[in-house]
Structure formats: structure tokens, C-alpha cells
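Figure S4 source data
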Amino acid sequence: MGRIVTINSNKVQRSLDTRKLLHKKLIEVGFDVDYEYNPEAELIISIGGDGCFLQTIRDYNLPNVPLVGINTGHLGFFPDISPKDIDIFIQSYLEGDYITQELPLLQAKVTTSDGCCNIFGINEAVVKGDKSRTIHLKLDINNKRVQNFSGDGLIISTSAGSTAYNYAVGGSIVDTSLNVIQVAPISPINTNAYRCFTSSIICSHDSIVNVSPECEFENSTLVVVDGLEYNFKEIDNISLSISDRKIKLLRTSNYEFWSRVCEKFL
């Protein structure tokens, strides 16, 4: 069996055209190409934007195989490669001229009256009310009550997710070399009954963040992980922590986090 590369793309025409070209060029240099997940593959290539990249990780069940992205979307924070640089990428890959970045996953353990469910994400978990309603949440960090929250919800993000939804609500950008958890409020409300932080909280990587809805919200709480909504009945608690599981990203040899931040946001 030859060297195998798996390609996953969205259905946008530019992505499909890029997939066709990439397939041809990989075959020319001796690779076998699959469009379905193959555990024997040495590399997974996602063609699209950040959404497609995250979807690939979900579709392939958090693979141990390294991933690289070709950006045919908009922002493209995860995808490193431009379609016009496919030849350069293939040559660099063949020569081993790249770096591998390991990103730890966020684990959300949702406990309901029916049991527990574990959900993993690379960016963030959002706890919010359904139907865009205000929600009341109890926030504990390492078994210490930090606040009784009132507002639109809480975002619990990894360092990799600090440039996503977290950044949009005013959270801090965190270098991905720092393994931390960040908790950012969405439209917090301060009253006599609820005193909320208006800025984000940054915790060490071994912290346990617990979010539990007040009893009247146990059936009206949404958990959204990397943009995918999960509906649960009778939520008792959501425990969030950094998992031992990691995703491997292939990066160009000149990749540098703050250069990427400036390129994409400034």
C-alpha cells in the first residue's frame, strides 16, 4: 500500500476545483488519495474555511492523523495554505519542511437526570439560553463559587479558541503555546441579585470549570460546542476541562502565532 492522503472539502465550487487539482498533483508524486476517512492515512487535508476545518475534525471523530487546511473561505485562521501555493506545499511536505502543532481539546461533561455525555471541541463551549432569552447560571472554578451569572451566556474557550467567539465578545487573545481555559461573559447583567464579571477570566490548564443553570432553566439551556448545538433535558451541571486528547495540526515552517493574528485581524 502506498502513502495515503485523505481530502475533505465543502461543496463550494472553488473548494471542489481545488480538490480536483490537489488530487491530480498528489497522484503525480505517488500518493494514494481517499475522500473518506482512512485510519491508514498519514495526512488529512481540509479544503474550505475554518468551519470546514472544524467539521472535518468532527466528521473524522477527532483523528490522531495530522491535519492541514487549504483556505478557500474567508478568515482562514486554521487553514494555512492558499490554493495558489499547492505546489509549494506538496514539495515542502515531501521534504519534511513543516512543523506539527498539538492543540489540546476542551472536554464538556454534561450531566442530566438521564446520565452523562462527553463532548469535545477545539475552540469553545457556549452555555446559553434557548430562544435568545436571558439565562441565570452558577459558575464555579475548582469547586469555588465565582459568580452567579445573569446574561446571554458564558463562553468557555481554549487558547486556540481565544481568537474565535471569545474574541468577538471582548475576550483576550491567548498565544496557543499557553495551555489555559478562558471564561468570557456574553452580555452580562449586573443587579443586586446577580453580580457578574464584565471581563473574561483566565484559568490554568488543570482547572475545572463548572456551569450549572438555576432550576427554572434546566430545560431551556443550550450547549454549543464549536458551533454545533446540543439540546439536553434537565441539565444538572456542565463540567469543562482541558482534555488529554489533542489534535495535530501541520503548519508551514514559517508559521508564527502573532504574525497570523496581525495578518488576520489588523
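Figure S5 source data
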Amino acid sequence: MIEVKNLTKRYGSFTALQDISLSVDKGDIYGLVGYNGAGKTTLLKNISGVYKPEEGGVYYNSKPVFDNPKIKEKIFFIPDDLYFGTYANMNKMAAFYNGYYSKFDYSTFKRLTEAFGLDPTKRINGFSKGMQRQAEMVLALSTRPEVILLDESFDGIDPQKRILIKGLVTEYINDFEASVIISSHNLTELEDLCTDIGIINGKKIVISGKVSSLSFGKSKYRLAFNRPFSLDEFSGIEAQGLRKDGQLAIFTVMGDSDEIQEKIKALKPAVIERINLSLEEIFMEEMEEGDYDLKKIFS
């Protein structure tokens, strides 16, 4: 299990991450969602042991990751900004990783290279962006890691190869009970692939939970009234994003308790409609509650 406990990362006086905590079990795929600059890459670099946090820490099976070569050997991080030496090809990179990862498997490397149709003798810098990502994915899975960290790793990959990678990652997890953390802007892609989702905003993880219960404790309501009403009537309900649209009141609340239901019924609306939130709607709700409200930009 990967555990991030109360992690804070600073660059001088700037705080990039503040009091982050999350855990990823074996066999789980954790999707990390957030806008550019939210701290996704910084968090992945802390989890991989590239960065040392100022406060808190990252642990794998209760052992610290930073400055721990034996634990780092179990983790493979594919960054968004890939770098390969000028004359590096996949065969040379395989030999390089074989020197660091004791479980590197050349038979897996050969099969995956063939599956992706990549020439291991050609310079990787001559590959397209998507092919470079495929090459790094081949190398990553060949090291037989227990934890895989993917930073925007589907960017630039064509749909056919994307499906192949998803299938390979899923199969690998099933076979080896590995853990995966993946950051992406493609919410639909994460919803289809991940077992868990975390939304990072304002330097913190603001929501984290199972994709199978996408509401994460949030419920959206649309109330229709056949009488004049004021938004002041909702003061007893901790309504988020409360707005009035004609005879409709629209808002989101945390939880779906009997107490909330009773307060809503006490307003005596003609119609009560509870709406299941999609992953994209949850993300947009959090963005509005955080640094900016998209609806107010042009108002």
C-alpha cells in the first residue's frame, strides 16, 4: 500500500502542496484530477521519492520512500516531460533499467515492443510524442514494478494504442497486484479506468473516493416551486452553488441524510429532483468552490 501522510511541499516561500493525505491499496488505480498547476506532478514526484517533502511523508508498506533505494526499486514513475539521451534507443534503455531494477524482464520487454510495433534499435528521440510514451510504458512494465506512477501518460497517444495500454495496465494489476496512480485531464478516461478518484485543488485533496460511488457524498438537487420564493429560505441548508433559475432552485449538498431531506421538504417545493453527479460535474463543482467560479468570469 502507498500512503501519503500529511504531506506539505514548499519551494522557498511558496507552498505547492499542503497537508495532503491519501492511500492506494494493492490492485487499485487511483486517478488524480486537477487543473494545470494544481500540484499533480509535484505530488507524483514526492510519491516517487524524487522530492523530499518539508512536512509529512510517503510510505510504501509502512516504509519511507524518500532516500530508500530498496523501496524506490519497486516504483516506476513516467513523467509528463519525458527525457531520453540523444542516441538512446529502447535496447539501450532496457540495459540501463536492467542495471537499476533487479526484476527487469527481457522477455516482457520483447513481447511488449512487438505488441506496440516499436523498433528497439531506432533512436527514441526520432519517435513521435505518442510513440515515446509507448516506449516508456514498455520499459516501465518490463521492470515489473509494484507501484506505477503515470503523469498525463495518455497524452498524444492514438485511440487504438490507448486501449492497448489500458488493457495492459489492467492485466498487469490483476497479475501482480500492483498499485497505479495516474494524473490526467481526461475525466472520462479516468472514470473508465480508475477504481478511485482524487480531486486536487487549492494545494489540497478536496475529494477522494471510489469511482463506484461517484457522488463522493455529494447530491445535487433541483427544486421546482409553484410560489414565489427567496434564496434566503435556504439558510438552514448548507447548500453549495445555490442559484435561482425562474421557479427553480438548484444546489449541491454534502451527504444525503434524513435531516437534509426533512429541511428540503420543509421548503414545500412542488417537485424535488435529486440528480446523480458525473465525475466531470463533481470536478467542476470543486473548481467553482476553490480558486475561481467559471460562471462569474464573464458576468
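The mean pLDDT is 88. The longest strand covers residues 14-24.
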